[in-house]
Write a structure and sequence with these properties.
alpha/beta; 2 domains; Rossmann fold
């Protein structure tokens, strides 16, 4: 397992690291390698911590981001969480799937520590199983609804849903919520087809689509790259010109890359995501600033780690305390918390997630464009 920790205060010719008791430790046992690596937040956390430390830290304390690779293994993530807790971490991040986040939160609870998962959209985390959890974004029913609303505005009627149990509700139920909104808007779900992560041959699903004998206006999937890029190519090769619609898993630079030789491949692709990520957005500007500092932040998901660091830093500054329970209470009671990906968030009404606008990103000539950015009001309630 690839593993290392980053003491941010000591990087890039900044001041030498402060003593352990003088630092604010955030522990990230996240997937730095493997299929989930593009969706981990550690690079953005590292960059934001360096920015804050360069300005003198928080209340004369430096931020120390502890990072080790969990891969996609829950037991490794739990072990790393325990390690970071024993080292004095006041906030944790982990693999952004509920089958890992729940046991990690349970381990952290006896320390008074919470998880701040800046990119988690899974509804399981808001069911009351654990109460020491924050996510900086809205749950999947909101992204599904935002995408469906735009699809209906494009005249979409007949849709095919691709579902998988491998990513929890994110890949299994997000397509169903999309379908619910489509049907509420007068459309029809033609069929639901299963898939597995890592699929490189979509011909069985494509054959079933062709066998329907009906025009398909849109295919919806909540999945990861490179699978989605392969699906788009194979659909077009099979003569299926339907919209390909998705969730935040599409928001990876490798999707944009499939249009390098043929921009038209993305003409009929759009997705609802976590934060605006088109040119000149706050995320893109942050990525550019980090690059100037010598830190590669490769896309929206890695950038979301900045939200974790900014939120913790704000809570420490506001409360004057590094006690983890005080930090969590300060976050939960705040009317407005400044972050990077949007101007501010709040947990005061929702307790565990940040209700915020849901951007819908499309493409023109292979370049990202922001299509919509609203809080949906017609979200399904069965979650």
């Amino acid at each position: 397992m690839r593993a290392f920790s980053l003491t941010i205060a000591g990087c890039m010719a900044l001041a030498a690291p402060a003593a352990a008791q003088d630092t604010i430790k955030i522990g990230l046992g996240v997937p730095m390698t493997g299929d989930y690596a593009p969706y981990a937040e550690w690079q953005g956390a590292r960059c934001m911590a360096e920015m804050i430390n360069a300005e003198g830290g928080v209340n004369d304390q430096m931020i120390e981001v502890l990072v080790q690779d969990s891969g996609a293994d829950t037991q490794t993530a739990i072990s790393l969480a325990q390690k970071f807790l024993d080292e004095g971490a006041v906030m944790l991040g982990t693999i952004p799937f509920s089958d890992t986040m729940i046991p990690v939160a349970q381990v952290a609870q006896s320390y008074g520590v919470s998880i701040f998962q800046p990119q988690s959209t899974q509804v399981e985390m808001h069911a009351g199983i654990v109460d020491n959890f924050f996510t900086g974004v809205s749950p999947d029913p909101f992204t599904a609804t935002a995408a469906a609303n735009h699809a209906l505005a494009q005249g979409v009627k007949n849709v095919v849903l691709l579902t998988s149990d491998e990513g929890g509700s994110w890949s299994a139920k997000t397509p169903l919520w999309f379908g619910d909104v489509i049907e509420a808007g007068g459309g029809k779900v033609l069929t639901k087809l299963n898939f597995s992560f890592g699929t490189s041959d979509w011909s069985p699903q494509i054959a079933e689509m062709r066998a329907l004998g009906e025009d398909i206006d849109a295919v919806y999937i909540s999945s990861i790259m490179p699978d989605v890029g392969v699906l788009i190519r194979q659909l077009r090769s099979a003569g299926i010109d339907a919209w390909v619609v998705g969730s935040d898993g599409f928001d990876d630079p490798s999707l944009d890359a499939i249009a390098t030789d043929d921009a038209s491949l993305l003409d009929r692709v759009f997705f609802a995501t976590l934060a605006p990520s088109q040119a000149d957005s706050a995320v893109v500007n942050f990525i550019a600033d980090c690059a100037e500092m010598g830190i590669d932040v490769p896309g929206l998901f890695p950038a979301t780690g900045a939200d974790t660091v900014k939120a913790v830093a704000w809570a420490v500054e506001q409360s004057g305390s590094t006690d983890p329970e005080t930090i969590s209470a300060t976050l939960r009671d705040a009317d407005s918390i400044p972050v990077l990906t949007v101007d501010s968030i709040s947990f005061k009404e929702t307790r565990t997630y940040a209700q915020r606008t849901i951007p819908v990103i499309g493409f023109e000539n292979g370049e990202r464009v922001l299509i919509a950015n609203e809080i949906p009001t017609n979200t399904p309630t069965d979650w």
